[in-house]
Specification:
Blueprint (H helix, E strand, L loop, with lengths): L22 E4 L9 E8 L4 E7 L4 E6 L5 E7 L5 E6 L3 H20 L4 E3 L3 E5 L2 E6 L6 H11 L3 E5 L4 E4 L5 E4 L14 E4 L2 E6 L4 E4 L2 H8 L10 H17 L2 E6 L3 H13 L2
Parallel strand pairs: 1-6, 9-13, 9-14, 14-16
Antiparallel strand pairs: 2-3, 3-4, 4-5, 5-6, 7-11, 8-9, 8-10, 11-12, 12-13, 15-16
């Protein structure tokens, strides 16, 4: 845990009847698998991650930082329930590698539990929360900050990667997570998912509710997935479909001003 300070608010004792989501064993003696096939290398924004498919259906990842240093070797089984990793370097490298490994495993193991990481900034009002998605630099964090400044009772749940989970009653809930980008907001809180809003810059403020197909197309790229893995990808698509069936999805065309926040607040809260 000394490598994972952002995880401390989420630490809890393990009960005998707990249904384990996944296990990740840290073993610096772990070595790369021999029988593997390169899938792709992708840029996470914080460095490259190299993905290999293993002969048994599992995966191997090499997690690198922005200096192209190998920070973590991660090997998983097919459903990401049993995972091992080896860390490398100083505290910063090891912390980065372990943090990214956990985020990868959580996202992909979560696909089998109707659980997903969504790239969004999320504001909470009472027991309901509203995530905002957008392309990087569009202003989702700015819009959330306007809510907190001008909407009474608004507070930040997470600024980068909250978690959406659909429970047995088919109701989507959204949770804080240990991953919050550049804003240190690590809150062990749960709220009902009130609406999802995509932000686009515009010369004037307006908001419209999306039809199901555009809503699906808007949500899919905001969620962590591996399109080449059909089981994980199909699980994610099913979960997004359930969200659209129960939750309104909007596009907010806006300026970075109070009027945009007020318009969005009134529209979203009236739709509940």
């Amino acid at each position: 845990m000394w490598l994972l300070p952002s995880f401390l608010p989420f630490e809890s004792p393990l009960a005998d009847d707990d249904d384990i989501f996944f296990t990740l064993t840290v073993d610096d003696k772990l070595r790369p698998a021999k029988d593997k096939q390169l899938v792709r290398t992708f840029d996470t924004g914080n460095g490259d991650t190299v993905v290999y498919q293993l002969a048994d259906g599992g995966y191997q990842y090499i997690i690198r930082d922005i200096y192209n240093r190998d920070c973590c070797l991660l090997i998983t089984n097919e459903r990401f329930t049993d995972c091992r990793c080896a860390l490398n370097g100083d505290w910063t490298m090891r912390s980065f590698g372990l943090n990214d490994a956990l985020m990868l495993v959580y996202a992909f193991a979560g696909s089998y539990r109707q659980t997903m990481l969504i790239h969004a900034s999320c504001v909470m009002l009472g027991d309901t929360a509203y995530p905002f998605t957008a392309q990087s630099g569009t202003g989702k964090s700015t819009h959330v900050s306007l809510w907190m400044k001008h909407i009474e009772g608004a507070e930040l749940l997470n600024d980068d990667n909250p978690i959406i989970r659909i429970l047995d009653d088919a109701q989507p809930y959204i949770y804080g997570s240990p991953w919050s980008g550049k804003t240190p907001c690590y809150r062990n809180r749960r709220a009902r998912l009130g609406a999802v809003t995509r932000i686009e810059r515009a010369p004037q403020n307006s908001i419209e509710r999306m039809a199901p197909i555009p809503a699906f197309a808007s949500l899919l790229p905001a969620c962590s997935s591996m399109k080449w893995d059909s089981a994980i990808y199909n699980n994610l698509c099913d979960a997004i479909t359930r969200i659209i069936e129960t939750t309104p999805v909007y596009t907010l065309y806006c300026l970075p001003d109070e009027e945009a926040a007020q318009l969005c607040y009134k529209t979203l809260t009236q739709s509940i």
